[in-house]
């Protein structure tokens, strides 16, 4: 049974930082590309960042480029999202997902990030 468990969310002031973690189990983690998506209240889920299985390729949404970083540790089956210079518009539930070739088949339950102004 595949499980993706996010952690690290919380309440932070604008300009602050958070690091999200996503621990994976039940799959061969190093075989999967990993990504973060987010969903704000009343909005559709949107792409945030992705990292390839080897960490060689990373892509970011324009809205978070230069503020967020994604990394992974294949020895710990964990992917991270470092979020800096947070803005109120970054407030959302952040989801971790695993997949390949742009198709994400496994999803976590999400972690809430709230940025106050």
Structural commentary:
The protein has 117 residues and is an all-beta fold. Helices cover 0% and strands 56% of the residues. The protein contains no helices and eleven strands. It has strands at residues 3-7, 10-13, 18-25, 33-39, 46-51, 58-60, 68-73, 78-83, 92-100, 103-107, 111-116. The strands form two sheets. Strands 2, 4, 5, 6, 9, 10 and 11 form a seven-stranded mixed beta sheet that branches. Strands 1-3-8-7 form a four-stranded antiparallel beta sheet, with no helix packed on it. The radius of gyration is 13 Å and the shape is globular. 32% of the residues are buried.
- Helical content stands at under 10%
Q: How many helix segments? A: 0
> Care to count the β-strands?
11
Low-confidence stretches: none
CA distance, first residue to last residue = 40 Å
Compressed to H and E, one letter per element, the order equals EEEEEEEEEEE
Query: Can you summarize the main beta sheet?
Result: 7 strands, mixed
Overall average residue pLDDT: 97
- The radius of gyration is 13 Å
Sum up the overall morphology in one term.
globular
Structural class: mainly beta
Strand content: over 45%
């Amino acid at each position: 049974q595949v499980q993706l468990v996010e952690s690290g969310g919380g309440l932070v002031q604008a300009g602050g930082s958070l690091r999200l973690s996503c621990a994976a189990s039940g799959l061969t983690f190093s075989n999967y590309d990993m990504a973060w998506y987010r969903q704000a209240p009343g909005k559709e889920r949107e792409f945030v960042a992705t990292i390839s299985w080897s960490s060689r390729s990373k892509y970011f949404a324009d809205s978070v480029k230069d503020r967020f970083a994604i990394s992974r540790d294949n020895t710990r089956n964990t992917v991270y999202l470092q979020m800096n210079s947070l803005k109120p518009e970054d407030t959302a539930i952040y989801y971790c997902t695993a997949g390949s070739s742009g198709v994400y088949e496994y999803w976590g339950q999400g972690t809430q990030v709230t940025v106050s102004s």
